[in-house]
């Protein structure tokens, strides 16, 4: 069984950052995937943008089976990560280039815990899951090994659900208003798919707090629980 220490870099309540850019879809593009089109082309907009239960006003997702929905309503990326990939790829990447709705500055948001709540603008959001990079993303970035490199980097950005609707615009503060304390950060969860201890800790917290896990994390918890039961039955 894998064991894990609580990440020392989990962001606490009171940690603050800044919304560097708010991005929505600019245009749909043809894509070789099963859906045939993609809404990954996000670009920064000016002024306040409404944040509803399913995401930002005027934003859409083409592949509704894998993107969007209440548990993936808003996707945010650390601006430092976009800068990293600009250097790696040797070209400028503007806000939205990684498909993000929010570019966050001065806060390493992959170190937010699952279930952490953040206030930005007048909206209240809750962290649900890391992003899992897909082939559409790789095709969009135009580099054959980009998905593998993004995976290896392990800081893939944060999905949020919307607890309180409101408005957000570039320049707004982001503040962590609640940190669960279980230590299962977005980065740790992304890199810990086989980590039963981490998954158990997260599932125990969610059960006690009455918080619904993202469907992929709930499925992971059920697989690990089934595996543990199977191991016990074989003893």
UniProtKB/TrEMBL annotation:
Residues 43-177 form the MOSC domain. SUPFAM superfamilies: PK beta-barrel domain-like. It comes from the Bacteria. Gene3D superfamilies: PK beta-barrel domain-like. InterPro entries: Benzoxazolinone_Detox_Enz, MoCF_Sase_C, Pyrv_Knase-like_insert_dom_sf. One of its GO terms (molecular function) is molybdenum ion binding. PANTHER family: PROTEIN YIIM. This is MOSC domain-containing protein YiiM. It comes from Brachybacterium aquaticum.
């Amino acid at each position: 069984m894998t064991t894990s220490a609580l990440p020392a870099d989990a962001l606490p309540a009171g940690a603050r950052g800044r919304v560097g850019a708010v991005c929505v879809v600019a245009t749909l593009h043809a894509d070789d995937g099963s859906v045939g089109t993609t809404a990954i082309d996000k670009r920064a907009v000016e002024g306040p943008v409404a944040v509803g239960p399913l995401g930002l006003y005027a934003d859409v997702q083409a592949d509704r089976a894998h993107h969007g929905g209440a548990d993936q309503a808003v996707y945010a990326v650390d601006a430092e990560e976009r800068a990293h990939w600009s250097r790696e790829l040797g070209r400028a990447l503007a806000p939205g280039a990684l498909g993000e709705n929010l570019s966050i500055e001065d806060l390493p948001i992959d170190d937010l815990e699952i279930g952490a709540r953040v206030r930005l603008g007048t909206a209240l959001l809750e962290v649900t899951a890391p992003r899992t990079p897909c082939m559409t993303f790789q095709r969009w970035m135009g580099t054959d090994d980009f998905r593998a490199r993004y995976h290896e980097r392990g800081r893939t950005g944060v999905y949020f659900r919307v607890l309180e609707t409101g408005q957000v615009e570039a320049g707004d503060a982001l503040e962590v208003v609640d940190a669960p304390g279980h230590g299962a950060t977005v980065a740790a969860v992304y890199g810990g798919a086989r980590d039963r201890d981490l998954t158990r800790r997260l599932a125990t917290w969610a059960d006690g707090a009455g918080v619904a896990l993202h469907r992929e994390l709930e499925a992971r918890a059920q697989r690990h629980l089934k595996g543990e039961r199977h191991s016990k039955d074989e003893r």
